[in-house]
Design a protein that fits this description.
The protein is of the alpha+beta class and about 100 residues long. The chain has 2 helices and 4 strands.
Length: about 100
């Protein structure tokens, strides 16, 4: 299945504000909500290497989206659903791209 809402990545991306030193961010199960109240879980591993002036010299971003996600049925009950392979790749690429842009900004 595919999620119907847009990812709300603000709280995840806030972790990369104002980098002023080498930075490591690792989390095994980060919850991301969509605009349609769906919830996906991701594993994120980020390393940022800054030079002496605070500019990004190198960085690495690894993102893994777990196939299980949660949504709601018509009555508001919770549904456990599974993302298809194409959707997993698409979500991983989108999250990776957003983190990369935030680091380079």
């Amino acid at each position: 299945m595919k999620i119907t809402g847009q990812l709300q990545l603000d709280s995840l991306l806030e972790n990369f504000d104002a980098l002023d030193r080498d930075f490591v961010f690792k989390v095994d199960e980060y919850e991301i909500e969509t605009t349609d109240y769906e919830y996906i879980f991701v594993k994120v591993d980020v390393y940022v290497d800054l030079d002496y002036e605070g500019d990004v010299r190198d960085y690495n971003v690894d993102v893994e989206v777990y196939p299980e996600y949660f949504g709601s049925d018509e009555d508001g009950g919770e549904l456990e659903l599974e993302l298809d392979a194409d959707e997993l790749v698409s979500l991983e690429k989108e999250i990776h791209q957003q983190i990369s842009w935030k680091i380079k900004a």
